[in-house]
Amino acid sequence: MKTKSPFSRLFNLISLVMILSMVMAACAAPSGDQFAGSGGVGANKIKLCHATGSATNPYVEITVDDNATKDGHGNHKDDIIPAPAGGCPKGATNTPEPPTATPVDPTATPIDPSVTPVDPTATPIEPSSTPEPTNTPTGTPAPSATPTNTPKPTQPVEPVAPAPADLPCIQCLIFHTFRDNNLEIYRLDGVEGQSNAKLYNLSKSDAVDSRPSRAPNDTRIVFQSNRNGNVELYTTDMFGNKSPVRLTTSRSNNTTPMYGPDAQTIVFQSDRNGNIDLFTISDVTGAERQITNSPADDVNPFYSPDLKWLVFQSNRNNNWDIFILNTATGNEYQLTNSSANEMFPAWSPNGKQVAFISDTNGGSDLYIIDVSGTNLKRITTDGKTINAVWSPEGNRIAYQSERNGNLDIYSYDLLTSKEYRVTDFAGPDSGPTWDCSGSMLAFTSTRDGDPNILQVSWQGGTASNMTIDPSTDKWSQWRPSNDVSSTGY
Fold it and tell me: What sections of 135-184 are H helices per DSSP?
């Protein structure tokens, strides 16, 4: 039996429940000033039991701003506000789904970061003297000597060809905003307030529209919306000239879409079978295909530069591990296998590596591993790193960390093994995303008193505004991608 840290249990609930139920319930409020992965901003907090609809985990205890209970959770008939002193009611069992009857073949013997931590190649920026929270574990739980779910090694996955270097480079920003008193997806050309700036409302509804993915040729976006009650996928052109077209019609929750390298095939996750599986759909023909069928949950798919391969995370071994899928053959290969949770995988544009977040030491740190399952590299050691995003060529990576008691943006150069502190504002800077030239980062910040999108050099320096509206602007995306920090929940 694996011992799970509070971080592990939190992600088991939040990464599944919040992606589906929080978006569908429209819990985000214009005044909440929440950030992807940052925990939100607000002085008055309240604990409540949020109904998930699951028989095994009927409630998840979350902490929200009290204005979120007025604008969102207060309208949920099954939520318990506030949470009882003894905790939220439990389901019939809290035991995760068992693994599949036939173990999935891996690429090679998976590397276990909790057993053999790998030191970073560069000394991380020293944290401040602020003591760590008292609930941070002081050691790494010892895994069993022989994990029962160790799979047999098979032929490793080879690196794929890198993303084409001649993709269109349209310097337009896609972002989320509450300018219309509900969560919309906008496009910004230029810098707001300047004479040549142009704004386009791409989603155009009174619902919660979020998690866009841009086609690699920058002609269309796909996003998710609860405008029909459940969460469905919609596509639209990059100028908002026409009303968005509904892509899925399953009446279940279809979320986390990402365009494939062909600019037509979209991968997404759906709970239509009672658990979460991965599907693909063509935005040209509407043809839909289920590509995973484990009784566990398969989430957070991310395409390689080759349409034939993608990476995802699954809890089929009772904790989150990372798998690689050959979409042509259906063969799956387990990339990580440890007592920790490995989450939010992202295939590098160079085709060679996968980045992911692991809670190996009870916190959350960034790792990179070759697609063959070798050469594991630990990038951060602060236990407070999330929202990692690749640069366009795949030699650098940006992320956010609260290591100094304040949320800031950092970047890491894999060629020189050097880390840069990109922002140092005394407030939350979150959700980094690269421009298509790889020279600048956009991010969300409250330095103007309300959330806006700013830009800064990837090595740090003076940041400048891209948006200036007093409404909340956040979760930007500056190139064709599916960065976790750019999509929001």
Answer: none
Please state, for a pLDDT cut of 70, what percent of the chain lies above it.
69
Q: Is 252 helix (H, G, I), strand (E, B) or coil?
A: coil
* Integer Cα distance of 48 and 62 in angstroms: 6
- 119-143 tens-digit pLDDT: 434 333 333 333 333 333 333 333 3
Rounded Cα–Cα distance for residues 254 and 316 (Å): 20
pLDDT score recorded for residue 171: 81
Q: 348 is written with which tokens?
A: 């590098």
Give the residue from 358, 369, 387, 378 showing the smallest Cα distance to 485: 387
What does the pLDDT average to over 324-340?
A: 95
* Selection from 332, 334, 333, 388 nearest residue 358 by Cα: 388
Whether 313 is in a domain gets the answer: yes
Q: What is the domain extent for residue 177?
A: 172-487
- The structural domain count of the chain equals 2
Does a structural domain hold residue 307? yes
Q: Do 292 and 439 share a domain, yes or no? A: yes
12 Cβ contact list (under 8 Å, min separation 6): 4, 96, 315, 319, 320, 341
Q: Do 58 and 52 contact (CB within 8 A), yes or no?
A: yes
Q: Among 67-81, 227-241, 395-409, where is mean pLDDT lowest?
A: 67-81
The gap between the terminal CA atoms of the chain, to the nearest Å, is 31
**167: helix, strand or coil:** coil
By three-state DSSP, how is residue 34 classified?
coil
CA-closest candidate to residue 246, choices 287, 306, 201, 286: 286
Buried b (16+ CB within 10 A) or exposed e, 307-342: bebbbbbbbbbbbbbbbbbebeeeebbbbbbbbbbb
**In this predicted structure, what is the pLDDT of residue 386?**
96
Are 207 and 182 contacting, i.e. CB atoms less than 8 angstroms apart? yes
Q: Of residues 472 and 17, which shows the higher confidence score?
A: 472
Tell me whether residue 332 is in a domain.
Answer: yes
Pairing assessment for the beta strands 321-326 and 332-334 based on DSSP bridges: antiparallel
Burial of 358 (0-12, 13-18, 19+ CB in 10 A): buried
Note whether 64 and 178 are same-domain residues. Answer: no
* Residue in this structure with the two tokens 């879409």, named with its chain if needed: 257
Closest by Cα among 171, 220, 236 to 392: 171
Are the beta carbons of 192 and 177 closer than 8 angstroms? no
